[in-house]
Each structure stands twice: as structure tokens, then as C-alpha cells.
């Protein structure tokens, strides 16, 4: 369910697509899925750290997005990561922003 | 099939064909071409095509031509303008837009309710045997429609997304008004940007030079699409509905950035070496969250670590389709290419961002 609007059945984000013929996904078996979730969390945390947020896994089914002071939101996919992160941080995560790029580094 | 819902038409092949009512919900018009009936069961994911184009650009003419072709013998059709294909008026009611859009801009909240209801109704009737087992769906939009909410409905609706896959999007542009429309109508630019196939109509009404110039302009505006004149014999219904990613030409990068109309720009990024799929997903989702309105299109092929075959990525504004494997590399060369069509966004800023968050991007243009 979408955590923002309550719509059911929207968890099939393109980056984590349900396995079916012809579709590229790292979701095909449990081991690959867990490994990809771990990589995704590392990649997202590299960016989220710029505004002191942390992403972590929740039982392999959802993610916890937390501020440095402990405020936490549950999200299901990357579709909800950035709107929720911006709400928690109180500022945009704009990948075109040189200031954010400078914080991330090369 | 109700008597009021039946209309006899003459196909190009000379055979009588019957259009029978499929849309019984209020506000929905639908038709399923019933003859000949497909012998095979419907595909697991029925391809759904969007036929878009500005007002008066020849969508209905093209739809009629498509429906007369055996390639679309088993196609269902959803139309959201009254009477456009001349079906019985009792069965042609407008699909009003009932968009549920929260201020968050979340993709899954942008759902056209009646379109989703119409698609579900078609599925119900197909399952119950009330209509022939259609193997394809064509949705003809209004001339002023932004393709994004329509495509996102198919992608986000929990039932539609389990039964349909988004097939090639087709846009019509008329040769008489197309150039002015591209300069002044954002809707047309969005339609052209979202298309996999662009059909130039009414070219017989303008000078050959003007038609050629517009063809070239459309090809430059959307390098991810193939552009053909409606009078070109190669512009056949079978080509129009062919899967876009099956054609290597679709992902060919432009030689340089092209600016058209009011700020529409096409450009490409060619990452060097294998792309980090995880970092790419995190970056693109972040980019579309903040700039989805200005990114009219992203399409390309990626070389990914551990994958011999190319992976095709295809998105329209905030909607990104499930990535797919392609059979082979175009030109036999293992090289990633991402084509963007943007409006109000600096291509160099996107290239710098790609290099920072994903790495390895070498811009073209």
C-alpha cells in the first residue's frame, strides 16, 4: 500500500519489478532480492547522509527512514523514499543541486 | 451484444466486421472487434497501446485504418471522445477525467478513475466470456490529453497492472498545423515526447519540403521514437503496434542536443563501462521525484554488470516501465545510451548529476 495516499497494490516499483518473462529484475529469488535491498540501502544512505537521514531494512519487506533525532517513517519502495525524505529533512533532495552534489562527493 | 451496439463496417481486406459493445459502465465507450475471434487464449499481459495526438491531427482516421488490419483483429478499443469512430452513440459516452491527485505528487495517486473502471470492466467481461477474448487494447485519448495520467493509470491500478503491459504509444501530428503546435502547445510536445511511433498525417496538404522538414523536426525532438509519414507503406498497423524495445533503432542516441519550440530539448548520456544498476535506480527515482514534470521522456539501453544482454529502460515523466531484457545490442556494440527529452531543464546539469550519483557518464552534444 502506498504510505502517502493509501492506494493498494502499488508496491511494484520499476527498480524492484515483479519477476516475469522479459523483465529485468533482481527480485527473482530471495537471495538476490536481499542482496539488492542491501545495496540499495547503502546507495541511498550515501545521499541521505547529506541531510542526516538514515535508511534501514525492516523485515525484508519495507524500509525505515529515520532522522538523527529518531523520527521514523515506514516506506515500501523508492517511489516513496524521496518525498518522505524531503518531508523529514524539511528540504529538497535535488540531484541537480550543486550543493547536494558537493556533499555527496565524486 | 446488443442490437443497438452493433455496427457493420467494411474492412480494408473486404470482409465485413462487427464491432460489438464492450463498455457497459456509465461514461465509458468500448468496442471489441468480434470477427474473426482469436483462437488463442488472451496473453498473460495484454498489450495496451495509447493513441494520442492533438485535436484534428487524424487519430480517428488512423484508428479506423488500424482496426481494419488483421493485426488488430482481436483488439479492444477505449475511446474518450464522443463518437469519434462512429460507433452507436448509445455506447459512446465520454470517459470523464476523475483524477485523484494528492499534493505529494505521488505517482500512484494520479489515477483516472473512470479509465481504470473501464479497463476493469473489459477484463471482467473478457473473463466471463461476455465479449470476445481480446488480445490487445487500444486507448484513443482526447486531443488535449497529457499521456502521462493515462499511462500511469495502467501502470498503477492494481488490477490493470496485473493484466496489461504498456505497448507502443502512437502519436499523430498533422503536417498543416504540427509546426505551429510544437511551438505553442505544451500538450502536443508531451504527446510527441511520450510516443514510440510518430505518424505525420495530412502531408498531402502541404509542400513536400514542409512535410520533410517536419518529419526531421519530429525525429530530432524525440530520438527515442520512429517517425513515418502516414502515406508511407511502411507505416502499417503491424509496425505501429510492434513492441518498441524490439527495434534497435529506438534507442539510438542523437548526435547532439536539439532544442525545439519552447524549451524542449533532446540529449543523450553515454555512460562508459557497466552501469551500477542500484545507483542508477536510486538516482533516477530521485531525479523524477523532483523534476518529473520537466522530464518528458527517458529511454535507453544499459550495460549492467553481470548481464550480457542490454537492459532497456523506458519512462514518461514520473512513470518508468518495468525494465526489460533486449535480445541483442544494436550494432553489436555493448554501449549504454540514455536519451532524455526535457523541458526547462539544463542537459548539462543532468549529465553532471549522472556523473556524480551514478558515475561514468559521457555526454553527447
What features would you describe in this structure?
The complex is a heterodimer of chains A (106) and B (365). Helices cover 36% and strands 15% of the residues of chain A. By secondary structure, chain A is an alpha+beta fold. Chain A has one domain (18-104). Chain A has a 3-stranded antiparallel sheet. In chain A, a hairpin with a 4-residue loop joins β2 and β3. The longest helix of chain A is centred in the middle third of the chain and has 19 residues, at 30-48. Chain B has 365 residues and is of the alpha/beta class. Chain B folds into 2 domains: 3-242, 3-Layer(aba) Sandwich (Rossmann fold), CATH 3.40.50; 251-364, Hypothetical Protein Yjia, Chain: A,domain 2 (2-Layer Sandwich), CATH 3.30.1220.10. Helix content of chain B is 27%, strand content 26%. Chain B has 10 helices and 20 strands. The longest helix of chain B has 16 residues, at 113-128. Chain B is globular and about 55 Å long. Residues 1-31, 33-38, 82-109, 246-256 and 361-365 of chain B have low confidence and may be disordered. Classes of the chains: A alpha+beta (106), B alpha/beta (365). At the A-B interface, α1, α2 and α3 of A face α9, β18 and α10 of B.
Helix content of chain B: 25-40%
- What are the low-pLDDT stretches of chain B, counting only 5+ consecutive residues below 50? 1-31, 33-38, 82-109, 246-256, 361-365
The helix-and-strand class of chain A reads: alpha+beta
Q: What kind of assembly state do the chains in view correspond to?
A: heterodimer
Strand content of chain B: 25-35%
Form type of chain A: globular
Order of helices and strands of chain A: HEEEHH
Low-confidence stretches of chain A: none
CATH class label of the largest domain in chain B? Alpha Beta
Mean model confidence by pLDDT of chain A: 87
Strand share of the residues of chain A? 15-25%
Question: Mind telling me which CATH architecture of the largest domain in chain B this is?
Answer: 3-Layer(aba) Sandwich
Number of domains of chain A: 1
General shape of chain B: globular
Question: Numbering strands along the chain, what is their spatial order in the largest sheet of chain A?
Answer: 1-2-3
Structural class assignment of chain B: alpha/beta
Number of helices of chain A: 3
CATH topology group of the largest domain in chain B: Rossmann fold
The N- and C-terminal alpha carbons of chain A lie at a distance of: 36 Å
Helix tally of chain B equals: 10
Instruction: Give the helix level of chain A as a range of percent.
Output: 25-40%
Amino acid at each position: 500500500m502506498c504510505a502517502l495516499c493509501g492506494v493498494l497494490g502499488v508496491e511494484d516499483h520499476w527498480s524492484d519489478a515483479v519477476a516475469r518473462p522479459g523483465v529485468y529484475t533482481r527480485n527473482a529469488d530471495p537471495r538476490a532480492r536481499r542482496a539488492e535491498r542491501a545495496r540499495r540501502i547503502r546507495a541511498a544512505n550515501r545521499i541521505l547522509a547529506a541531510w542526516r537521514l538514515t535508511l534501514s531494512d525492516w523485515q525484508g519487506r519495507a524500509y525505515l527512514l529515520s532522522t538523527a533525532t529518531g523520527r521514523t517513517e515506514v516506506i515500501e519502495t523508492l517511489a516513496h523514499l524521496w518525498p518522505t525524505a524531503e518531508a523529514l529533512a524539511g528540504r529538497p533532495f535535488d540531484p541537480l543541486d550543486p550543493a547536494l552534489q558537493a556533499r555527496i562527493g565524486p | 451484444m446488443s442490437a443497438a451496439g452493433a455496427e457493420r463496417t467494411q474492412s480494408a481486406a473486404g470482409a465485413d466486421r462487427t464491432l460489438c459493445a464492450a463498455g457497459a459502465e456509465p461514461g465509458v465507450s468500448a468496442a471489441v472487434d468480434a470477427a474473426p475471434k482469436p483462437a488463442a487464449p488472451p496473453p498473460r499481459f495484454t498489450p495496451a497501446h495509447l493513441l494520442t495526438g492533438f485535436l484534428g491531427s487524424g487519430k480517428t482516421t488512423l484508428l479506423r485504418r488500424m482496426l481494419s488490419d488483421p493485426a488488430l483483429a482481436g483488439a479492444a478499443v477505449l475511446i474518450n471522445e464522443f463518437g469519434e469512430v462512429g460507433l452507436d452513440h448509445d455506447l459512446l459516452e465520454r470517459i470523464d477525467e476523475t483524477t485523484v491527485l494528492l499534493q505529494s505528487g505521488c505517482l500512484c495517486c494520479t489515477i483516472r478513475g473512470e479509465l481504470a473502471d473501464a479497463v476493469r470492466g473489459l477484463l471482467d467481461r473478457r473473463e466471463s466470456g461476455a465479449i470476445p477474448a481480446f488480445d490487445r487494447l487500444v486507448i484513443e485519448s482526447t486531443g488535449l490529453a497529457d499521456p502521462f495520467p493515462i499511462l500511469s493509470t495502467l501502470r498503477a491500478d492494481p488490477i490493470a497492472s496485473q493484466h496489461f503491459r504498456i505497448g507502443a504509444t502512437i502519436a499523430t501530428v498533422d503536417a498543416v498545423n504540427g509546426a505551429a503546435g510544437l511551438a505553442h502547445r505544451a500538450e502536443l510536445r508531451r504527446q510527441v515526447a511520450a510516443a514510440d511511433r510518430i505518424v505525420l498525417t495530412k502531408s498531402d496538404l502541404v509542400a513536400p519540403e514542409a512535410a520533410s522538414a517536419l518529419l526531421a523536426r519530429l525525429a530530432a525532438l524525440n530520438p527515442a521514437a520512429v517517425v513515418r509519414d502516414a502515406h508511407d507503406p511502411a507505416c502499417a498497423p503491424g509496425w505501429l503496434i510492434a513492441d518498441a524495445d524490439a527495434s534497435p533503432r529506438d534507442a539510438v542516441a542523437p548526435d547532439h542536443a536539439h532544442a525545439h519550440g519552447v524549451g524542449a530539448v533532446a540529449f543523450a548520456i553515454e555512460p562508459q563501462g557497466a552501469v551500477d544498476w542500484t545507483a542508477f535506480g536510486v538516482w533516477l527515482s530521485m531525479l523524477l521525484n523532483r523534476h518529473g514534470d520537466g522530464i518528458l521522456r527517458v529511454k535507453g539501453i544499459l550495460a549492467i554488470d553481470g548481464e550480457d544482454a542490454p537492459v532497456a529502460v523506458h519512462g514518461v515523466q514520473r512513470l518508468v516501465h518495468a525494465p526489460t531484457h533486449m535480445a541483442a545490442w544494436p550494432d553489436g556494440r555493448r554501449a549504454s545510451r540514455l536519451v532524455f527529452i526535457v523541458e526547462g531543464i539544463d542537459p548539462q546539469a543532468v549529465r553532471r548529476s549522472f556523473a556524480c550519483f551514478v558515475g561514468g557518464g559521457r555526454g553527447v552534444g
